[in-house]
Amino acid sequence: MWKSGFKWMFLIIGTTIGAGYASGRELWEFFGHGSGLAIVLFVLFFTVSCNVIMTISHKKATTEYRPVLKVIVGKKLLPIYDLMVLLYLYTTTVVMLSGSGATGQAFNFSYSWGIAFIVIMLIILFLRDISGLLSINQIILPVLIIGLLYVLLSFTIDEKLDLFSHWREQNNWTAAFPFTALNILPLIAVLGAVGNKVTSKKEIWVASIGSGLILGVVTYIYNNSLIQIADELLLYEIPLFAILSNYPFNMVLFMSVLLWFAIFTTAASGILGITTRIRDYFKLPFWLLVILILATMIPLTTVGFSTLISILYPLYGLLNLYVLTRLLLFPIWNNMEK
């Protein structure tokens, strides 16, 4: 039970901590000053949402997200949100590819080489179908979370920062709604693809509570660190590098590798959601479908990493508020419809 619960927990975290989150760009876009309460609310909303999504996918033993989405938004709105989920997964995976290009530039590799590398690795990963993603998440994500927390706590100690110095400023509490809404749509797609592999309700509780608490702690500490260097963030496409600016090269290298792995796991989750949704229409091997999807994404990466995040993420956060509302009120309206 615990082992399976942790497997799903890491899948959830791997889907959420991508280029936007791990780089700090997504957090700064939504949070910043006065966001302590917003992050607490995010933990609550995120935990409930994950629990509901996993419960539905488990009951229906799903292998793709449409049956889960149908329960959440209803039959009439299903085609609209089905299209939105696909568009979200597609565009955010493009953001991940762009993030890989931006990470490569930090080490004087060309933008295109960074993109080519992640594309090749994604193809290799999906030669093993879905099992490859689940295996790699359990290896990479504990290292990523520990590494990120180490850097953020080291920064907090070195700069003598108070983790609760801004707690009285809570004017940005409403940011919890679009931020959670942004992050639950890919979870519907990914968790909907593995519903038939979940075996018990205990796994669901371990996964939803564990992922919510871990993401909440990392988000709070990360946001607190970014507040201290707010004036410098305009100079960096990836805010994490602003935090690392006074650290030795070895630390920068280590965190850049972890950042790339965060990008990789989220890109893989996006590809998983898209491929499981459309593979019934194409009588092709899973890996070949992955190659064809990635081939259509590469030209779109020329837009740029920070530009994509600043435009797409707030937009998706607003569009998904209805889905979030349905998930949070699921016990009420589900009982009324029975």
From TrEMBL:
Keyword ATP-binding assigned: no
Transmembrane segment boundaries: 34-56, 77-97, 109-127, 139-157, 177-195, 204-222, 251-274, 286-309, 315-333
Annotated PANTHER family: CONSERVED MEMBRANE PROTEIN, MEMBRANE PROTEIN
Keywords: Membrane, Transmembrane, Transmembrane helix
Name of this protein: Membrane protein YkvI
Keyword flag Membrane: yes
